[in-house]
Amino acid sequence: MVEDISRKAQFWIVIGIFFFYLTSTVIMGSLNYLIAMDSELYKYYNHSATMKYLAMSLYSFYIIGFLCHKTDQT
User: Fold this and answer.
1) How many CA atoms within 13 Å lie on the side-chain side of 57?
2) What span, in angstroms and rounded, lies between the C-alpha atoms of 13 and 15?
3) 3-class DSSP assignment, residue 29
């Protein structure tokens, strides 16, 4: 029997956490590089807005997971 993992809340929670940490790691690494290179682009970067959008996406995946969750009725 093949399970549909997209109907499990755990799947969406893990996807949200993976997306949040992978994206924030890449963004923080890029920001660290801009600071080390003394780039002018650093002046235009808004850290708090970026982290807010990433957090909203994380919690959106949580909500999708709980809305799509289907329990097994036996």
Assistant:
1) 16
2) 5
3) helix
Residue count (the chain): 74
Please report where in the chains the tokens 């036996």 appear, as a residue.
74
Return the residue matching tokens 């940490």.
21
pLDDT digits (tens, 9 = 90+) for 33-60: 888 888 787 777 777 888 899 999 999 9
Query: Which residue type does 59 have?
Result: Y
- Give the separation between CA 26 and CA 13, rounded to whole angstroms: 20
Tokens of 63: 């909500």
Q: What is the pTM of this model?
A: 0.74
**Element at 21 (helix H, strand E):** helix 9-36
